[in-house]
Amino acid sequence: MLVPASSLLLFYRSPTQQQLTENHTSWIPLFLQAPSDIQGIETGTGKCTPRHNKPELTLSIIVLISIIVSYLPQYYRIFQKKSSDGLSLWFLILGSLSTTSSFFNIFVLQWGVVRCCSVIGPGPCTESILGITQLAVQFVMFNLIFILYMIYFPPNKKISTFLRHQLLHCRLFCLPTRSFTWTLSILASKVLLGYFFVSTAITVILLAAVGRGDISHDDGGGGNTRSRAWLLVWAGLLGIIAAFLAMIQYIPQIIETYLRKSMGALSIPMMLIQTPGAILITVSLALHPGANWTTWISYAITALLQIILLGFCLFYAYQIRKRRALRKKEEEQQQQQQEPLLLTRR
């Protein structure tokens, strides 16, 4: 269940108008600015004041557990089949880029909260960084699917189709060449790794430039105003990338599933868990005070694509089960027809 970082704004308390006025980066659009009050800690005045909210804490823990549980069926499916055949490479690429961007987005926006962990106790700190923890776990869990995709990539599809036929005739002089899909998969793994390191480097450099100041306002901690502005722009860019990629990432998998006429290594239980979650997030955003269609439209599109993909998976699973039952019935009929002949021969 890919959840762009902006969905965690449900857990934020909106900054007051005075705090927005005091923000020295007023030239930045408001949707790119970090909120001053964040779940678990209030940093708007430059002080780390723990704020405990039991309902929000309970909901955050439930979301965290749901993220972990939702990916387990997919791991089991790949292990069971010993193959990742059926998973779309572009689905995994877009998802990995989206989860990476989401993680760095929320890490930057909650940098003030992370810094407060050195002041407050471990309990309030753990509660306050649950948003970061959720997206960090999602980042790890989804990218683990990509790792399993590479490990269990079908061996027969690693070699080009032409040479795979030629290898049947010559074994000494015909050197196997990588197939296009396998070559693209290797390239994608390098690109994703590079994107992670580049994002890490940019984030570290900008946070170091800000210094000990809060990114949302000038608290006299030595943070440079323009550095804070660039940091917020970087966070906003990451959020936009994460939301856009999460919105379109299911399209390649839908096409792959439709062309295969089967779900392959894609786990239906995972989709059954994640699709209702996407619908719930969409409804929650739509009902959020002050929200309009621009707030929830990307989540609605993502949920719709997940519903379509789940529908394809269930339909093809039913067709496969139906064909197996029909084949089994035909085999039983053939066996019954052969039994009288065997008795006659005896």
UniProtKB/TrEMBL annotation:
Main localization, broad class: membrane
Keyword terms, alphabetized: Membrane, Transmembrane, Transmembrane helix
Top-level taxon in the UniProt lineage: Eukaryota
Keyword Transmembrane helix assigned: yes
Entry membrane topology: Multi-pass membrane protein
Pfam families documented for this protein: PQ-loop
GO CC entries: membrane
Name of protein: PQ loop repeat protein
Species this chain originates from: Mortierella hygrophila
